[in-house]
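User: Show me sequence and structure for the first protein, then do the same for the second.

Assistant: Starting with the first protein.
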Amino acid sequence: TLDLRDNQLSSVPAEIVQLSQLTTLNLSSNQLSSVPEWVRDLPKLVNLHLLGNPIAIPPEILGNVFLAGDLATIFRFAFAPETQPLYEAKLIIVGDGSAGKTTLANKLKNPDYELQPEEKSTEGIDLIPWEIDHPNGNPLRTKIWDFGGQQIYHSTHQFFLTERSVYILVADTRKENTDFYYWLRVVETLSNGSPVIVVKNEKQNRQCDLDERSLRAEFLNLKEILAVNLADNRGLAELQNTLQNYLCHLPHVGMNVPIPWANIRAVLENLSQNHNFITRDRYFELCRNNGFDTEKEMLVASKFLHDLGICLHFQNVRGLRKLLILKPTWATGSIYKILDHKQIKADFGRFNDDDLETIWDEGDAAKMRDELLDLMMHFGLCYEIPNRRGHYISPQLLEKESLDYAWDDRDNLVLRYEYTFKPKDIFPRFVVAVHEIIENQALVWRHGVVLTDGYARAEIIEEDRYHKAEIKIRVSGTNKRDLLSYVARELEKISNTYDRIDYETYIPCNCATCKNSPKPHTYTWENLRRRLQNKRYEVECELSYVNVNVRSLLDDIAVPQLIDRDDDSMMLADRTARSSPFSPTVIVNYQNPQQTMTQNTGRTINTGGGDYRENHITGSNAQYAERDIVNNHNPSPTETAELLKTWLKDLDLSSHSDQDDLKDELLYQPPAQQNQIWDWMDNVSRNSDTRDEAIKTFAEVLGSLFGLPGTIIAGTFKVAYTALTKAKAKRNELPANYENPFDASGL
């Protein structure tokens, strides 16, 4: 491995090619304007990191801060003998309902467009093509994305508001109630600082005064504030010129792409004229016909086209990965037929399979009901009610008023999250994520939910606002820490999908005064983290003025866990704004209270049953921080049980009708996860103490989460162990240096 990142290099010496054993070369965050040609002569190179250089290759191709992009695809872009410039852009129009977004979109394309007395509200998204001239004479093909302004449509913003776009925020000056802060914060959060132009739609010449200086100071991506009157086109020409300037200067416009990429982009657009979708296999066939060599490059291309808005390909969603949606408007339009349906709204978001058959009753929607339903679930727009197959709830449409229920407020664990800015879809997505343990599948409303795991109850309530808003969790019962840890991890997992969301975690005091108080003193996680980092192990309670042990505060609320090595969001150890007591990137040693907590790598961690050393792995496994067992010590029984519990919760056991289904689920896990699972199961088989603890955990988790009888619990354990034993046998048949022991035919 050779790490040359962050050195401001404008060139790299070709003598490096003499390092014949080099597998990883990190050149990220330098000043390279092109990929050195000699890198192709490194015989064993696997990972080439180039992100953060002024290179004319899309960032998706280069990878991210942890994962290098596909080497063959990088070389294809860098050294393709024939390329074609890409002139494609997205113009996204957002704003409140009835602000005039659709009229503006039509006026941009055709200034002679006649205003409609009652412009029909956009249902979901409309796409309008608009071709403009680039300064170099090439036509720039722009798609105007006109978003519906109703709040129910906000849930899909995170999937369509992307980089490589220019944004328009339309404000209706007659109403003077446009929430500029919300919309500007949404665009800033989801688009990585893409340029925004505010358009004041001065209907009936009614003007609107804005505090422009304050808005510009807070939102650096706010580029222009312009006024138009769409009735007489006043200000329209200036707006068109301004938009053309920003669109033409988007970083990717004019970028050279290999001819096969340009070809497949044209093929998909042509197909979209009379097809709403194609299968992934059909896409692969089209790619091969147009010069692609590998399926890996084909998938990189589909991700690039997804980000450009040419198609939708959700590669990480099991029910959707085999489908390319060519018309986003078809998919979103079908979804919003459900969410906008009068009867479903009257039933507060409750619907069933019969409703789907009635509403999706013709054309492709009738053929693709399962896939469209998967899309809704992926967006967090609905969930299936456990034990009521074919019945669903959309949490965005639930009753707004809180429900009545009894609550024991003695000895509660209380946790609070305060967001600087809280997108409106965080809580509905959270409800979808935890819906299986909603109490009686009844205690849920638009801004709150009560959960239970059979031992404890958790109440989670969000403030009905987005600016400096909080989500509060309180847990009562026994084994409170387990349920609190689960709830907090799920909430943080969703919050962390937004790169620019900041939140603070407030942790309750556990002194004698606060322990039984419904309003205990709280400490910020950042405060406690810095104390531990500086070896300050006590903090004073501001209510009782007694000193409290910092580690005990964390021990009360957080179950220790290992890193999920296949979750990119867990690889943010250097981003303290995202760390928390529930994050696997933070190691708290509960067995040895004298040992400090740290986030450094390359150190030894005592886990009670043996030392684990955390190392950075290079080569094909560079995507995660590995823990190797030192001196062949085994994990402790308690730790093994905790790992098994986490794994079981990740498996969708409710969907398995037989042993083969469960076996497929076990062996479907990513390679690194399978290795981890095998380590657990192998330890269970060899250690009687661990085996007893693990079987107890199986019974506890399966019984409480899925209501399964004892025979099924025992059968599940047998199936799991048998499947992984066969996998180990396959592994033993493979060469010692084979990096993916579970990727073998016959599994």
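Switching to the second protein now.
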Amino acid sequence: MPKIQTLPDILISQIAAGEVVERPASVLKEVLENSLDAGSRSIQIHLEEGGAKLIRVIDDGCGIEKEDLALAFTRHATSKIHSLEDLETVETLGFRGEALASIASVARLSITSRATNSQQAWKLVGSADAQLEPAALMGGCIVEMRDLYFNTPARRKFLKSAGTEFAHCQEVIKRVALAHPEAAFSLTHNGRNHFQWAPGNLAQRLQAILGDEFMDHSREVLADGGILSLHGAIIDPTYADSIKDQTYTFVNGRFVRDKVISHALREAYRDVLHGSRQPSVCLFLSLDPSAVDVNVHPAKTEVRFRDSRAIHQFVFHSIQKALTSLAVPKNIAAPTTPPQLHQERQDSAPQFSTPYPPQHHYRTQQTQLEIQQPRQNERYYDFVAIPESTKSQFPPMGFAIGQLQGVYILAQTENGLIVVDMHAAHERIVYEKLKAAIDAQSIATQTLLIPITLQADTLKIATIEEHQETLLGMGFELGLAGPEEIVIRAIPALLQGGNPAKLVDTVLKELGEQGFSNTSTARRDELLATIACHGAVRANRQLSPPEMNALLRQMEETERAGQCNHGRPTWFALSMAQLDAMFLRGR
């Protein structure tokens, strides 16, 4: 058996570097976190060849005392924790005391520092055993890393091209800068200036990094649960496909990739995203440091929550609440002032979408929209007369002025025009009503005047027998009329205008393939979404003005009315300014 021996310190540090220093971006992350822990408010970053040749970070933090410079190169030496209790409640970004020692073992590292109130700056090059040199520096620190993996060529060959490594470095800077909008950041690469972000509030930093398009089509999230809080911005589902996937989640100011938060985010968007779209978000979760373990991954990008279920529910409900309201676009006049992010924004900064509270009711000429066969003989191009008393009190979705090609409703708002896809909008309304009725176990049924008899195979007959109670709970009363026949006696009242035969066929097919369980909300909602699609008003259905207005009012009172069950948008708006620009008015 080979003899057991103690590894030399340099080899131990190089092994540790394999966990901490994956690529230049890993080095940059560790150095930036140290700068921020030191209280820096201005950080300059200089890179060469994607960071593989040079990473220089200049900050204005508190600096390192002369007698502590050598310790900065020593493994497991840190000023941030002193006991196990400190580790369990750590609030700093760095705490392991391994980063600089690991970097120094695989690259040429130097630190120049002038501590606060110190009369002299000092420089240390190479290792803890090197001689301190006097240096010129106004204050703060300069950390310089050159020639990454110069002494381990086998690892250097695994680095990607300079362009790829630079892109990873940029991403690290974005994450750190989003979490610290109060600090200024600048970046140069191969002598070329790439950006310079001034200090400001979160809204300004989001605009600088994620862009105007994200800010124009985002909604603010602001939730306070006492020991938990969540704030940030999420993309409006309608625009999720036009804006690239940019997901930034932070826990106590630390960027993380967490499965609990990611799952809660996907679940909250499940009903409103179309196809394979991915939401762009920037979210900041704050909680007691003792309730989260940040010491579970060498790169500190993963965390473990003490009560992951509570975190999941809090994030899920906070995002769902932000997505629930009918978000009126910014070019439509709003009766309320949109909430601010931390500080008052500049007039030029884009604002977040303003949801209209669903409790607003408007007295207009309208009736309850019912699903029935098209009225072939009724003229529907009669424009509804808007009462003088309500002209100054436009509801969020406005008043219907007509129908286009039997597909779209045109509505006049206080400051423009809204176009509504009537099938998509009614589909969402029916879907939400079905969910609420089933949750409350109070779904109303409509008994058919003449029961309908259908041919059915053995699988459908077996499905009826197996799920009889479920079908009754959903408002379907089905029975057997023979060995290969079923009879439909009643359907949900919400779907009375649909085709009973097609509805029952769809329900039995879905139940036979997937089943139905109150414990599986996602599976249940998929079935209800399919049913709602069959029960919603179809294209070419001619609506009277009161019916069109009824649909608009129901949209205002329905959660997530901006998207149908499949994630498609239900309406778009054009302001008078946009319409004037189309027709070159005022030019």
